[in-house]
Specification:
It contains three helices and no strands. The radius of gyration is 17 Å and the shape is elongated. The protein has one domain. About 5% of the residues are buried. α1 (about 1-35) packs across α2 (about 40-60), α1 runs antiparallel to α3 (about 70-99) and α2 crosses α3 (about 70-99). The longest helix is centred in the first third of the chain and has 34 residues, at about 1-35. The chain is an all-alpha fold.
Amino acid sequence: MFVLGNLLAALAQVLNVVLHIYMWIIIIRALLSWVNPDPYNPIVQFLYNITEPVLHRVREMLPMSGMGIDFSPIVVLLVIMFLQAFLVQSIGDLSMQLR
């Protein structure tokens, strides 16, 4: 069972890193929206392509379409923090029990 425990521990670490990187990508995207970047820049296109599917879904669920402020990055950041605190921690705890 220690192999499964090590596999789950590695999965928890990788998931934590991926969520942390995506959190920073969301933050950078939100900061870029304040300065009106060049939409043809490949970095800006990459950031938009990787974040827009998630942010668009959150925007569809939020009833604040007429306010002028986009709260979707804040909601996504809160979901990422929840996943890091709950899911990653739960997988890590389960891996410790299987060792």
